[in-house]
Design a protein that fits this description.
With 298 residues, the protein is mainly α. Helix 11 runs antiparallel to helix 12 and helix 12 packs antiparallel against helix 13. The radius of gyration is 44 Å and the shape is elongated. About 10% of the residues have low confidence.
């Protein structure tokens, strides 16, 4: 690529001089001067070994945990041979360890272009899409499509069913998740990851007995797995937790606007009679006064 760019720029410079366009020719020459050292330095960086040599170096560095240098070495291997399948696989694993999911997807795209009938490549790309779907749910559809394509290519592999189960569990669709996990276990009953993830889904559904059974089965295949031991301890703690106290229902009686106690009817009647008697006496008194006044005038 660098060599082709240099040839094009040199041709542009010669064409510019021949046409008398000195400015265009000068610009092309300047770009040649800038690009040449970069291409030369890049070629010199990867010129010490061939593709196989850089591939072996990258594997050794990856095993030692020197991931950045391993990536640089595997980049040189791919630069020497851009169809080097094993080199792409190593770079995929390195980028996955560094959680560079976009780079993982790019390399799986290249691998699928080279070999479009390998189920593992679709499973790997699906897992990368699923990792991105944690922050962007739109990637879930692409992850699901890759897992389903992997099932088409290899219906006996448990990994794509586990991937589909993980997608369902991420959306809290635990009933659907256990269906996929059980499908994975039907293909490989000793798959520890399927057993563990199924146990978590069952526990979230409240089926603690099945969850414990799956964890115990997983522990029998991986007795040193501390994650399974921690899940068993957590499950035991949940099952032995005391039940919450029953909620006491407090009934608040609404107060009516009317009085709740019946009044003393006898006292009320006596008061009414006294009031009526007083009114009657007042009327009689006014009548007597009126009679006296009129009688005196006569």
């Amino acid at each position: 690529v660098v060599g082709g760019a240099l040839l094009l720029q040199a041709a542009g410079w010669l064409w510019g001089r021949w046409q008398g366009r000195r400015m265009a020719g000068a610009a092309a020459l300047l770009l040649v001067v800038v690009v040449w050292p970069m291409g030369a330095a890049r070629a010199q960086d990867c010129a010490q070994m061939d593709a196989a040599g850089y591939y072996g170096l990258a594997v050794e560095l990856a095993q030692a945990g020197v991931l950045d240098d391993a990536l640089a070495a595997i980049d040189c291997a791919i630069l020497h041979d851009n169809g080097f399948t094993a080199a792409y696989e190593v770079r995929v694993n390195l980028n996955a360890r560094l959680m560079r999911w976009e780079a993982v997807i790019d390399d799986y795209n290249r691998l699928i272009l080279l070999h479009d009938a390998v189920a593992d490549y679709y499973i790997g790309r699906g897992n990368a899409y699923a990792a991105l779907a944690v922050d962007n749910p739109l990637y879930s559809a692409q992850a699901m499509a890759d897992f389903e394509q992997a099932i088409v290519l290899d219906g006996q592999a448990p990994a794509p069913y586990i991937g589909l189960g993980n997608l369902m569990a991420a959306h809290e669709r635990y009933n659907d998740a256990v269906v996929y996990y059980e499908a994975a276990l039907a293909r490989n009953g000793e798959d520890v990851l399927a057993l563990r993830n199924a146990a978590i889904a069952y526990a979230n559904m409240g089926d603690y007995e099945t969850a414990e059974a799956r964890l115990l089965t997983a522990l029998s295949f991986a007795p040193q797995d501390t994650a399974i031991q921690d899940l068993l301890a957590e499950l035991e703690e949940i099952r032995n937790a005391p039940p919450p106290p029953p909620q006491q229902t407090v009934i608040v009686q609404q107060q009516s606007a009317l009085p709740t106690e019946r009044p003393n009817l006898a006292a009320v009647n006596a008061a009414l009679w006294l009031l009526a008697g007083g009114v009657l006496l007042a009327l009689l008194w006014r009548r007597l006064k009126a009679l006296r006044v009129y009688g005196g005038r006569r």
